[in-house]
Amino acid sequence: MRRPHVRALGFTVIELLVVLAAIGLLLAVAAPRYSQHVDQAREVALKQDLRALRDAIDKFYADQARYPATLDELVVKRYLRGLPVDPITERTDSWLILAPTGQASGAIFDIRSGAKGTARDGSAYATW
Prior knowledge:
The chain is mainly α and 128 residues long.
């Protein structure tokens, strides 16, 4: 008596290759979009951090009638909870400090990012 042919359970090599090719194609399409969104998120975070830092500097000047001597002074006097990390450089010590002009006392009139390079719109991070 002959046994009927029983097919082994599992996937064939062809089926596995088709699935891997489909996954590779999806990753090839999704990866660039993901990196664009990460870059966009960093730029938005940088703009928000600069806005918060400049607002804290302005409030400090309005209260103290002088500009802060250091960024840490903004934290010590509770104008900021903490010094934000530059989202592009991922460091807190890369901020570029602009001194006041004229007769104003203090050391920090404005602040910019110390990040090298340009944003997606073509402007340099250091000019924001």
